[in-house]
Amino acid sequence: MATAAETLTRSHEGLEIPVPGTYRIDPSHSSVEFVVRHLGLSKVRGRFNQFGGEITIADVPEQSSVEVDIDVSSVDSADDKRDDHLRSPDFFHAEEHPSISFKSTGVSYNGDGTWDVTGELSIRGQSRPVVLHTEFDGAENTPFGDQRIGFSAATEINREDWDLGWNVVLDSGGFLVSKKVKIELSVEAVRQA
Predict the structure, then answer these.
(1) What letter does residue 144 receive in the DSSP assignment?
(2) Three-state DSSP class for 80?
(3) 39-62 pLDDT tens trace
(4) Which of 37, 49, 143, 155 is the most exposed place for a label (fewest CB within 10 A)?
(5) Domains, in order of start, for the chain
(6) d(CA 108, CA 99)
(7) Structure confidence by residue, pLDDT tens digits, 84-93
(8) Which residues contact 149 (CB under 8 A, 6 or more apart)?
């Protein structure tokens, strides 16, 4: 007899992957986080608290897709003054550009248990290609009658590519805030009927 989790996954070329379907991201069990260096010394973490989207798992996994929309005003770096600055025209300019979006354009298997999800990341009205290095974390039936899948993904971007260029040059020649930003995602999504 198959276990509950097995009924939610299938084997594809020896890999465990989700069964086909549409899955809605559950923001209360997911996270969209970023990491930047401050003064070249410490790593400062932030997150967006409001976001949503859908993952479509296709019969052919490479034809799967994902779309995500993030509310810029929900940025939270554990410092109110810094969050206000991040919402300002120096950075996200939340008043004119209230959302960040990601729409996939391709999915490919890396041969090592991970997948690359290529897509367009739109920030401040500018779209640039990014690659999310993605792992399938599993699937489970919940005690509440729904079915869920999990993924984790990460990428690194240069924020200046999206006109997020505000900075201060230090006496050492370095910068107050790093240009490179790591993006880390942990996603739990609910299968739709």
Answers:
(1) T
(2) helix
(3) 877 899 999 999 999 999 999 999
(4) 143
(5) 6-191 (2.40.128.110)
(6) 27
(7) 999 999 999 9
(8) 8, 18, 23, 55, 57, 136, 137, 138, 139, 188, 189, 191
